[in-house]
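Good day; I would like, with your permission, to put a structural problem before you. The record follows directly beneath this note:
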Amino acid sequence: MSNPGTPTFDQLQVMVAVVEAGSFAGAARRLNRATSAITYAVDNLEAQLGLALFDRVGTRKPVLTPAGQAVLAEARALAHGVDRLRAKVKGLSEGLEAEVSLVVDVMLPTTRLVDALEAFQAAFPAVGLRLHVEALGAVTQKVLGGGAVIGVSGPHHVNVEGGDQLDMVGIGGVSLIPVAAPFHPLARQRAHAPGAGRDHIQLVLTDRSPLTAGDDFGVLGLKTWRLADLGAKHALLLAGIGWGSLPEPMARADIEAGRLVALDMADWRDRTYPLQIIYRTDAPPGPAAQWLINRFQGQIQTL
């Protein structure tokens, strides 16, 4: 058997467009070409590879064959790689950004954010900064929608729609600890058996975005109050209205002052909220934004 030919990037791009648009006519509209040109490109691709990529017999819409599904995965990877290369070259040719837009998860410790932005100001005094603070999937939504170039996200973007369009850089995490006011019933006991928190109101941070709406993160209680604001959750915990988790750096001063009590709960062990930088593969960070990413990475060993 002879070796398969080498497909062009254009042919692979056409194949991906047909799959995503659901038809040859839809791909033609997306790529601003004639339908006949789309058909011709796919025919040539199949001839070069020696494989039938689409089953077009007896179906109104082109359906990928098993071989086509395997080729599609590689085609998409190549397309993302080329998009990333083009965006990188564009960033290099345009030079330093005029402004960096950043969105961070509310769970990011304030000390880490202040450290990064103070150093950023000193390193790039002429570059503006636009900062957004969001919770859970709203961080991912902001980056996917183009409202921020980079985001400091929690773990919840991986399986959402559009998640495959993101690159990710891990920057450690933050410990979440369950707490309650000292006069709350749970705070009066030193240790709690599994399920002890179920009969008390648990204050839960909820998602304002549709990406992960309805998902539960660290929910143990049968009675829950759901809040979209971490500050409001903190205030209600101090008031004794329920129990819930807080990032350890946020709760530390309240615990030391006796305003909150860390709960020793058997079903809440070593919960860490992982943090990562995310950005779109087709819009990678420029020099100033990349510097900011490096700063967040470097904090893992120093803060």
The domain at 97-303 is CATH 3.40.190.290 (D-Maltodextrin-Binding Protein; domain 2).
